[in-house]
Amino acid sequence: MRPVRVAVVGGGTGGTLVANKLATELRDRVRRGEVEVHLFTERPEHYFQPANLDIAFKGAEPRRFVRDERELVVRGVNLHLGGVKLIDLGNRTLLFDGSSLEFDYLVVATGSRAMPELIEGLAESSYNFHTGQADARRTWEAVRKLERGRVVILVNVPHKCPPSPVEAAFLLDEHLRRRGVRENVEIVYATPYTRAYPTHSIAEVVEPLFERKGIEVVTLFNTDYVDVRERRVRSLEGEELRFDLLITVPPHRGAEVITASGLGDEEGWVPTEKETLRVKGYDYAYAIGDATDIPISKSGVVAHLEAIVAAKNVIADIEGTGVEHCYTGRINCPLEVGDGRALFVSGTYAKPPERQEPSRLKYLMKRTFPNLYWAVLKGRFEAIFDLYLGKPYTVRGARG
Amino acid sequence: MRHVVDARGSFCPGPITELIKAYRKAQPGDEIELLATDPAAKSDVRAWAQKSGNEVVSIEERGDHFAILVRVVRR
Fold first, then answer.
1. Is residue B40 classed exposed, middle or buried when 0-12, 13-18 and 19+ CB atoms within 10 A define those classes?
2. Fold (CATH) for A115-252
3. What is the DSSP letter of A359?
4. Helix-strand-coil percent breakdown of chain B, rounded to 5?
5. At residue A396, what are phi and psi to the nearest 5 degrees?
6. Which of A323, A325, A322, A292 is nearest to A391 (CA)?
7. 10 Å Cβ neighbour count for A35?
């Protein structure tokens, strides 16, 4: 009899952590050859993505924020580099690199793609820090040479890391002040939301700070197209903004393999039950992180906490315990406001984020995390996260 | 055509993101029914409809959540 096979597709935060948790917690079964854990990822480089902000607006060195995936997986994880071409969920089969793998359980952790090319004129006229380190570095090159003019920070939805556009505005302001050129530069923040931040309790903190720093906010601005020649961006609502430098948060879509496999909605997000994290209609497949259609932040912390929940559910399935772990919708996203201060956007499905004052301590917590991240991927510090955030799941009895 | 968008439990980025996603693929004459628990969604959707030239048909309380019905007038 062949071993029970768990396939994890995607080697970002969620995929790496779920594979490591499975191999660790099922290590006796893995050692006895009863369970196999397979992790598929396209490239060996694993990036700490939140640092793209530091690369783009502080000139941080990109190499500090990349590791080799082969060093990040624990013993017992079969790592496949090269990515998956097709997921045949009905027949429980993956196609990759001319081979196939039959699986018993699947975790989809394929993430999201920032796609400026989806909006006419956007890719050729803008800088962004969501398409990877190289583009974050290009943004830095533009920012550090900026002397005067009008910068538009243009937010498109959906996008990963809800705080990131606001942080970009704060950090750009801070950088320009430090160089003594802030008074020559106008910063305009254009967002599709009704407030500077979509969650009102957080907008109440962000908006006065924007005002104090002279960052102009244009709300309800959904990008229609960019007139490249005239350097103007136009909204579906009929407004127009002129720019000298355009920094955008591009609209995001699900991974190509999801669309190619017919698993996603129109934008490539996997229909997912928001508590059990099962792919809708399948009791042997789970989806986590940016890949899902759950209306929650696409962020590292969500991928991290959902990975823990999905791993526990796969283990419960394999061990036949009949218990289900239900994700609480916990989010806890750092938001840096410049001047060495930050706050956390923290809540659950049942509890909206409350207003928080930015502090030096929260900034230091944010700055510490990149050093812990690589160990967190191996499932370490979980007790500390549980202590700080509470368990990210509730448990219910036999599946009903 | 009616698009039902379930944004219950969403506070960040919130229901308005889901509404905008549905709006981008809707046609004039379509209706979008947005289910939400975040009370800020009511004022957000009204403000969005006013600026974008669309219409809030109704806001209905349904126990632990509410439903906002939007008619797409302009696209």
1. buried
2. FAD/NAD(P)-binding domain (3.50.50)
3. B
4. 30, 35, 30
5. -125, 160
6. A325
7. 23
Query: B20 and A162: CB-CB below 8 Å?
Result: no
- Indicate the domain borders of chain A: 4-111+255-326, 115-252
Q: Is the pLDDT of residue A400 over 50?
A: no
| Per-residue pLDDT tens over the stretch A234-251 | 998 889 999 999 999 999
**Angle at the Cα of B47 (from B43 to B52), degrees rounded to 5?**
150
Helix (H, G, I), strand (E, B) or coil at B1: coil
Q: How many CB atoms lie within 10 A of CB A134?
A: 10
Question: Please, what are the domains in chain B?
Answer: 2-71 (3.30.110.40)
- Placement of tokens 């994290």 in the chain: A277
Name the one residue in this structure whose structure tokens are 């700490």. Answer: A48
Model confidence over B11-46: pLDDT tens digits? 878 899 899 889 988 999 999 999 999 999 999 999
Among candidates A222, A267, A274 on the partner chain, residue whose Cβ is nearest the Cβ of B9: A274
ipTM topping 0.90: no
How big is chain B by its Cα radius of gyration, in Å?
Answer: 11
* Residue in the structure block whose two tokens are 């990149």: A370
Structure tokens given for A236: 């579906």
Give the separation between CA A156 and CA A179, rounded to whole angstroms. Answer: 29
Structure tokens at A298: 């696409």
Chain A contact present for B38, CB below 8 A: yes
Peptide bond preceding A162 in cis form (omega within 30 of 0)? no
The CATH code that applies to domain A4-111+255-326 is 3.50.50.60
Q: Report the distance separating Cα A96 and Cα A9, nearest Å.
A: 11
Q: How far is A337 from chain B (nearest CA, A)?
A: 18
Q: Contact A157/B20, CB-based, under 8 Å?
A: yes
